[in-house]
């Protein structure tokens, strides 16, 4: 059982790490991966048919903790904790007296007869007490003092579960803005627009958010928003200047889509491999041509399908890659206006790929004033 510190309306954690409200899903997974020897048997729960309508859940089964992430922006919405053998330490049981001593008085709680649970709410924090051993539901004494003493709760009543969230109402809570402590020198994409003209996509315009970091940074540092544009034909230096260093550089060892190319040289092996700049916090991968080192293709995560493809889709089996397990099954790739939409079996889009038209060395880069979509 983990021994963690509870900070109402903020986080659950210890000196080594913390799960902070507003934290991105990828950062939460990274913490679990780094501490896999301590935090074991983690489940990832999601809706297969309506993934954008239900929260994403990281379930720490051995520690009684559930991390619920907003399905749309994938930020930590609230923390759900089943109380085990201790609350703050192994010597302290999670009784109502301990809650009163630790957090002070609050408004009278709410009894849920269906759950047989009594909910005691603080700002950003709520406790649920198990009523199985009680002979009857707790009774209110309106004329008595306010706070915990106004409820007829037996001594030693144990906490069953705890929620950490933002605001006063758990049912109305939303994932807060990302805390400054979660940036860790990274940039995040607040919005990604496709730059287009009448022929198709020209590139991407990204609205980025970042926070300063490093020695001497003031505690009241604010999140900054900047805009950057990446176009087909940009060099590696252009992309590095706009977005900074990628989290990873991936060199392609094969191209499973090459068989669908009309080029007569599609079966001729290449002497050098194209490579990706992977920007995990942006949800964007940028493919560079191995010969010219110019931007060749973009991959970007999106949420809704645009337009109606005219041709039949190509079936993509990702399980044939080095990772031979794929819980999502095969996907369909639809081509439309120099864009490829990868659609899963639940009709949600897994990725969209933008690619440039064939270029010659004499062609100039398209004007950046083209319309965005």
TrEMBL record:
GO cellular component: dendrite; synaptic vesicle membrane; trans-Golgi network
Domain of life the protein comes from: Eukaryota
GO term, biological process aspect, one: Golgi to plasma membrane protein transport
Family the UniProt entry places it in: Belongs to the PHAF1 family.
Identification of the protein by name: Phagosome assembly factor 1
Organism placement in taxonomy: Eukaryota, Metazoa, Chordata, Craniata, Vertebrata
């Amino acid at each position: 059982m983990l021994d963690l510190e509870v900070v109402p309306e903020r986080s659950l954690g210890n000196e080594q790490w913390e799960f902070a409200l507003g934290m991105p899903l990828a950062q939460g997974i990274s913490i679990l991966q780094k501490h896999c020897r301590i935090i074991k048997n983690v489940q990832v729960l999601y809706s297969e048919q309506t993934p954008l309508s239900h929260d994403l859940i990281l379930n720490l089964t051995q520690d009684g903790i559930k991390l619920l992430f907003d399905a749309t922006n994938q930020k930590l919405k609230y923390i759900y904790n089943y109380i085990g053998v201790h609350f703050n330490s192994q010597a302290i049981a999670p009784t109502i007296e301990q809650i009163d001593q630790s957090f002070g008085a609050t408004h009278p709680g709410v009894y849920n007869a269906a759950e047989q649970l009594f909910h005691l709410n603080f700002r950003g924090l709520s406790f649920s007490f198990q009523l199985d051993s009680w002979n009857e539901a707790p009774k209110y004494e309106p004329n008595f003092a306010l706070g915990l003493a106004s409820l007829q709760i037996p001594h030693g009543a144990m906490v069953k579960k705890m929620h950490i969230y933002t605001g006063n109402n758990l049912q109305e809570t939303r994932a807060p803005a990302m805390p400054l402590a979660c940036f860790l020198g990274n940039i995040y994409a607040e919005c990604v627009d496709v730059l287009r003209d009448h022929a198709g996509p020209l590139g991407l315009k990204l609205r980025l958010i970042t926070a300063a970091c490093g020695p001497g940074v003031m505690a009241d540092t604010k999140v900054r928003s900047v805009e950057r544009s990446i176009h087909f034909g940009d060099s590696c230096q252009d992309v590095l200047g706009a977005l900074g260093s990628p989290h990873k550089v991936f060199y392609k060892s094969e191209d499973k889509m090459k068989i669908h190319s009309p080029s007569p040289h599609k079966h001729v092996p290449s002497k050098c491999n194209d490579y990706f700049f992977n920007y995990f916090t942006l949800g964007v991968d940028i493919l560079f041509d191995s010969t010219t080192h110019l931007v060749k293709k973009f991959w970007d995560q999106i949420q809704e399908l645009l337009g109606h493809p005219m041709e039949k889709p190509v079936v993509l089996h990702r399980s044939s890659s080095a990772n031979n397990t794929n819980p999502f099954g095969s996907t369909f790739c639809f081509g439309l206006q120099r864009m490829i939409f990868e659609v899963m079996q639940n009709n949600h889009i897994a990725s969209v790929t933008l690619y440039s038209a064939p270029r010659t060395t004499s062609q100039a880069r398209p004007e950046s004033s083209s319309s965005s979509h």
